[in-house]
Amino acid sequence: MMISKMIVTLFAGMLAVVLAMQLLLCGLPLFRRLEFDAVCHKYSLLMDRTGKLTPLITSQLAQELAGRGFTVSRIEGTDNASFGDNLDLLVISSYSGCRFRSDLTPEEVDIFFTYQSSTICRVLKN
Length: 126
Hints:
This protein is α+β, with helices and mostly antiparallel strands.
């Protein structure tokens, strides 16, 4: 009787660990997406202050994303906008993540993220 309780408890514990790991791995892309959007939004605000996507902003954005483990494939934005024009930013990136197959073996996958924003230029230029 005591052995059967111990076996059931051990099995339930192992099942709980496997389920917790699966939930964690399913939640990681969401957290990476939130991090990616936050970084891109920060540079979208910098772009709003200058009225264009400068090479400095582009390189800083690429460096920060690379420092966080993202592989940037494309960064595009408005080169020069007048007051009232659209300021567009497009960032396409990927991140190598891990997921479990149906046979519970880990598999490395690339997860792609796209950030696209459009704001109105509020910078007056002479």
